[in-house]
Design brief:
It is built from 7 helices and no strands. It is mainly alpha-helical.
Length: 195
Amino acid sequence: MGRSRRANRPTPNDRNRSKKSEYIPIGWKSEYITGPTFAVCLCLAIYFLPLGQTDASNLFTGTAFLTYSFISVIRVSKRWLGGELPTRKIAVHVARIYFFLVHIIFLYLVGFAKLYLAVGDGPANSCMNQHLDKVSSLYFTLTVFTTTGFGDISAVTDKCRLMTSIQMFSGFVLITVVLVLCLARLGEILGRGGK
């Protein structure tokens, strides 16, 4: 009887084999950490550098940032909820959450800030109640996204009210997707006893 109990216990070699066979995505650091960090730095440089700050270039850049942000959400959501193999490595899960919070949401915010610059930077009495520069446009975008709404900057024309409404609705969708995916990964970590 004593022998059968010993035979059922995992040996140190068995434990090492199970750790080695654990699924760890190849290139996860560059995909979830390095790539998003580079994208955010490039995004900030494009936003704040005084190159081509016309309404047309702001409109194009803002649309490009938003399109890339939404495509990234769809691509990563399909991978996370689809057939990607689960992993118990907590660092991979934290990197994935970083990917969402910094990469996708940041690009989303800067994209809308660029759009507000394009439509709200007119000569006299633009579609906002005051003139928007780069900082105030990013500030307004952040207050709309977080639903703070201080009221110091507000939309006064239908065009800007429509754009603000689109940002509010898409912001709720984006936050919901991020929360669902992060909670799904948290459940996977807790269920598998992540290490």
